[in-house]
Amino acid sequence: MAQPNGTVNGTVNGTSNGTLPALRTQPKAIFFTDFDGTITLQDSNDFMTDNLGYGVELRKKGNQDVLFGRRTFRDSFQEMMDSVKTPYDECIATLLKNVQLDPHFAKFFAWTRENNVPVVVLSGGMQPIIRALLAHLVGEDAVQHMQIVSNDVKPRPGKSINEYDGWDISFHDESDFGHDKSLEIKPYAALPERPIMFYAGDGVSDLSAAKETDLLFAKAGRDLVTYCEKENVPFVTFEDFSDIHKVVADVVEGKISVKEAAKGRL
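Above: the chain's sequence. Below: its structure in token form.
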């Protein structure tokens, strides 16, 4: 685990801190988080695969293959999304009706804004779906105050995304993850003096980020907990964002250390 040193200054590979978006307000802490199944109760990509694609059984098999190193997340996720032929606008409409927000996220997000703790969403999902769901669930103003780094969507050759079998995932980078979340965190971790960094996640898309911050929140009962225990990565479980809110506030206020907070399964 990387270690924080307090105030913010210095450079990374010759790049001024000012170019790192989450440092613009000189925060004491930064909260990086997964989106699907972490901020939301349901994973939008899993929901599409289970209900519009090849179904639960094949999706769970793919996740297990990734978790135990038998295939890459990128290949598994590409296969999942390829199984969904529904026009993209219909996918979004379906998700807006079925995906719910963690009931405690809005309160936590309000606290982060009041206490200068930037929230950075790092998602293996697709930008249009994330933005549509956030705007629907917490409001457009909230979306404007979050940095969102994710994959995107693109039309298949000769088609529109809003026709049958018309869209394809556009990956964020060339890594085996499709979106290697650690690449967004590492420039902050490399600073000689920096804020405390948190990360919250639940599944196989979070494996690359699991070791990069000071305190990892892993959703209870999900694949990320299994990975952390297998790889001896310090973490603490959470049921919902009320658990995260209490711990983050206590760490930021100096009541407990990140080491004291990393209690594993609760």
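The CA atoms of residues 94 and 187 lie 37 Å apart.
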